[in-house]
What we know:
A: about 250 residues, alpha/beta, six-stranded mixed β-sheet, four-stranded antiparallel β-sheet, 10 strands, about 35% helix, disordered N terminus, B: about 270 residues, mainly alpha, 11 helices
Amino acid sequence: MVKRVLSRFQRSPASEQRSAGKVNAPATPDGSDAGLLLTGVAKKLPGHDQNIIDGVDLALPRGATASITGPNGAGKTTLLRVLAGLVKADRGTVRLNGLDSERDGRAYRATIGFLSAGNTGLFARLSVRRHLEYWSRLALLPPDAGRRRVASMLDEFALHELADRRVDRLSMGQRQRVRAALTFLHEPDLLLLDEPQNSLDAEGTAMLKNALDEAIARGGCALWCSPAGMMEGGVFDHRYLMRAGQLRPR
Amino acid sequence: MSSAPAYGRAVLAVLKRDLLIFVSYRARLLGQFLGAAAAVTLFFYVSRLVDTPQFPSPEDYFAFALIGVLFLRALVATLSGVVGMVRQELVAGTFERMVTSPLGPTAGTAAMMLFPFALALFLSVATLAFAAIVFGAPLEWSTVPLALPVAALVALALAPFCLLIAAAVLVLKQATAAVRFFIIAISVVAGFYFPVELLPGWISWASDVQPFTPAIDLLRHLLVDTPLQDPVSGLVLKVAAFTAVLLPLSVLAVSTAIDIGRRRATLIEY
């Protein structure tokens, strides 16, 4: 089953479009098509002797996906948190389509979608629909676009039947689908996915990958993090290994 | 995309979120109202024992203490409410979504103040009605409508304290004990249950260096016609001046707290 899902991902229309160079991404503010650009990003956490992220450079063009694997504690999650703006780097810069993550904070945040590891980030007593509506507002979407995107996410992640159910009455896999829907709702340009397959069954994984394909087809890019060995069979444009805070191509 | 109406809708979405969560606990509103009603009942009977030059009749003290009860409960609902909400956000990981949202963590934190204030206002009106109906609290109906804009000003004066406490929770992860101390200290120096003139000289200055004393004096005057020593305009100006100074400082404190959390990588810790 998993192989079938993964092969679906391999043959996705977005992948084919990418291969054929059909992705039609709009121009960036500075005229380049840089996508995500990390330069010398470093972070030392309190209580650590060494940098948890140690001078990471990365260039991920629009319409590209990258996987980052590595052992526990290698710095993958911290790197994604830096990119999401939850952690401030000690050194280095993060730019997305010409936007600097620190200087252009608000505009930058509008273009990222972050799915953190674990199952947190939901209000136990709010329904699925309320979550999506709430996030559409926080993402500053116009009302019409917000309604459209909420309906689209309910479709894409098969949440219609669960739409009016409180999330504390959902299974872990269903919650992960809600969390994924929140991540994709505002059509971000950069998707930061930290162990996104967590608790998902094959069907949920396929939904996630379809949503990712659509985002990539729009000219977005994605970083997909998971521990070593969890990504066998997945197809990405770039593969990296993170070890002791350093990112190396695999 | 980032127009003022969009921000307004985002702030209202936070208010709606908190309202929906609050009403999902069916007995919560009733419980809070019953707590306030019990406090009013207690002070009604305590007032029967009061016979002093400051309060010629028990009704005078009851009216005085009634506004103190409302103010104290509003202070608890807002300050303690904010501590609870920010803590809950951190523990549940939902603050992370606020931080990564275009609305942003500072505006998001400020938006979280709205529901506790709205709830405090609603409960205050309900408790006042209870006191008037059950115990015949002497409301001054001619000036009661004026209490609403003054209450809005008082809420603005209270907001900086809520934001400062939110900033403390974001950095220290706990502020419950400090908030309890603060609320009790304010209830003493701002004269919630007794006139500040009774305070000894060494501490009486404390009733002049915060906005709660003029705020409660104003509300008492408008709601139950307690005489004022200063003109209304002077008290309004005093509350407004405290607000004008403290509000930007408190917003800066929240912004700094978030920056500290991002630098230390502790923003989503709890």
